[in-house]
Amino acid sequence: MKRLSVTRWLPILLLAAMLVMFPLQSARADIRPKPTMSFSFTYEIDLAPEISSGSLLECINTNCTEAVPLQKMGPQHFDCSASSCSSMA
């Protein structure tokens, strides 16, 4: 009976360990629709003010006593023009 040498099986064991640590599946991007919101402002006065800036706040806790502005990351944004705002979160 022949004895198995360690040097012969070591590369196979290393390859098997790498396959367990790094699966062969590829990563998939999140392609679902994102929640969006768009709204405009109408005024009952003749000379309507223009919107100069705005921010959308995200609640940190359930009663929303702590909130932070929505950050611009990837497709996530909150933008305002002179008379309307839109967001994607």
Provide an overview of this structure.
With 89 residues, this protein is α+β, with helices and mostly antiparallel strands. The protein is 18% helix and 22% strand. It has one helix at residues 6-21; strands at residues 36-40, 57-59, 67-69, 77-80, 84-88. It has a three-stranded antiparallel beta sheet with strand order 1-5-4, with no helix packed on it. Strands 2-3 form a two-stranded antiparallel ribbon. The longest helix has 16 residues, at 6-21. The chain is rod-shaped, with a radius of gyration of 28 Å. The N and C termini lie far apart (67 Å).
Could you give a quick summary of the protein structure above?
This protein is an alpha+beta fold and 89 residues long. It is built from one helix and five strands, in the order αβββββ.
DSSP strand count: 5
Q: Gyration radius, to the nearest Å? A: 28 Å
Low-confidence stretches: none
Lateral strand order in the biggest sheet: 1-5-4
Secondary structure: helix percent: 10-25%
Describe the main β-sheet briefly: 3 strands, antiparallel
Q: Helices and strands, in N-to-C order? A: HEEEEE
> Which class best fits the helix and strand makeup?
alpha+beta
Number of helices: 1
Strand content: 15-25%
C-alpha end-to-end distance: 67 Å
Basic shape = rod-shaped
Mean of residue pLDDT values: 81
